[in-house]
């Protein structure tokens, strides 16, 4: 089964079966994951809730990929905002990433060919090896629009391209790091027909704001009804998006679980806040089961981000801290 068929055929009915099958495969073929699972003596999960999650910090110190892999298609690094090194993700087969983010975009926003895609991601471009830049660049190419592109420090050009796109009957979607979107908002321009997606991150350029404060500034300065957010990270191949009111949703091949922050092997029910665990079935050749340093809360149709563990590095793709 190719990646597209696998991802599109994943459903609530077969998710647990596929997750357990992928656990056994990665236990056998990803040596770091196997060592961790053996150490905590949880090598025989019988249900989704018994699958062990690898702490995300391992991606900073270890090459996490199928041990039989000699060559990888892609090598990504995190933005390196924290003090303990950059996470690295070695992607054996780029088709899994390409299919995952493109199908995910279509799932939430419709065909990318309907959009002019604009990107304000200067720091990610500068550091290189960014999975976010790779994804957005691919969306720009897939859009087939001459107006699409990266606009690193050109806020007024964003307005020009937006107006041209709207006049041509095209939709506009803008991916932007937080400080670049604030630069844009200070122009007090009307982007009311655009979809604006903040990808997090002041990068030391501005005072850190809560997500509520940031979005209030952007709504006011850009003339939009609300601002979306992306939930993604170097260590994963899939993304979640908040479409309204800060509530994130994920694609069918991705699942969020909430763990007890004081006992990582205990999971919480909906409406209780704790650490976020992510299952990403697109992450076939690395580790699909990741214990993040994010805090969140599940509801029946999504989840909310509620900050970071105190000792956690600030992650590149979503750097805002709820207070």
Write the layout of secondary structure elements.
Layout: H1 3-8, H2 15-29, H3 31-40, E1 54-55, H4 58-61, E2 74-77, E3 88-91, H5 94-109, E4 115-120, H6 122-127, H7 131-143, E5 149-150, H8 155-167, E6 171-176, H9 178-185, E7 194-198, H10 211-222, E8 228-231, E9 240-244, E10 247-250, E11 254-260, E12 263-268, E13 273-280, E14 289-299, E15 302-308
Parallel strand pairs: 1-14, 4-5, 4-6, 6-7, 7-8
Antiparallel strand pairs: 2-3, 8-9, 9-10, 10-15, 11-12, 11-13, 13-14, 14-15
**What is the straight-line distance between the termini?**
45 Å
- Radius of gyration computed on alpha carbons: 19 Å
- Helical element count? 10
Mean pLDDT across all amino acids: 90
- Secondary structure: helix percent: 25-40%
| Estimated share of beta-strand residues | 25-35%
**What is the CATH C level class of the domain at 96-231, in words?**
Alpha Beta
Q: Indicate the low-confidence ranges by residue numbers.
A: 312-323
CATH architecture of the domain at 96-231: 3-Layer(aba) Sandwich
The shape, in one word, is globular
The secondary-structure class comes to: alpha/beta
Order of helices and strands: HHHEHEEHEHHEHEHEHEEEEEEEE
What's the count of strands?
A: 15
Main pleated-sheet profile: 13 strands, mixed
Under CATH, the topology of the domain at 96-231 can be stated as: Rossmann fold
